[in-house]
Amino acid sequence: MTGGDELAAILSALDNPHRLRILAALKVGGRNYVSQLAREIGISRPLLHLHLNKLEEAGLVTSQLELSADGKALNYFEVVAFHVELTPETVAAAAATLSDKPEK
Question: Which PROSITE patterns is this protein grouped with (predicted)?
């Protein structure tokens, strides 16, 4: 079962067309480094970094810094296998575990 905070983070991360495109590109093309991924998706590296950070915070992608043969640092990202089932029951169960309770 997905907890409320985790579900909220996942849904928030998926609530952006750029992030959906990023996940799709990583799923289809496999792990990739930031500069190449930015070119493939057609967005700037700073904007891509913002979106990748959101996806990583939600646990949907992981990153690994590696050195290329010529000594350049490349940050590789890849999709983490995930499964989210949205039903009224799973949403209600997740809502009951949220750490941020709305004020009354």
Answer: HTH_ARSR_2
Domain count, the chain: 1
* Residue 91 resides in a domain: no
Q: Which residues of 5-44 are buried (b: 16+ CB within 10 A; e: fewer)?
A: eebbbbeebeeeebbebbbebbeeeeebbbeebbebbebe
Q: Which domain holds residue 78?
A: 4-82
How many Cα atoms occupy the beta-carbon half-sphere of 13 within 13 Å?
Answer: 21
Task: Kindly tell me if the per-residue pLDDT of 76 is higher than 50.
Answer: yes
CATH code of the domain covering residue 40:
1.10.10.10
Residue reference for tokens 């930031």: 34
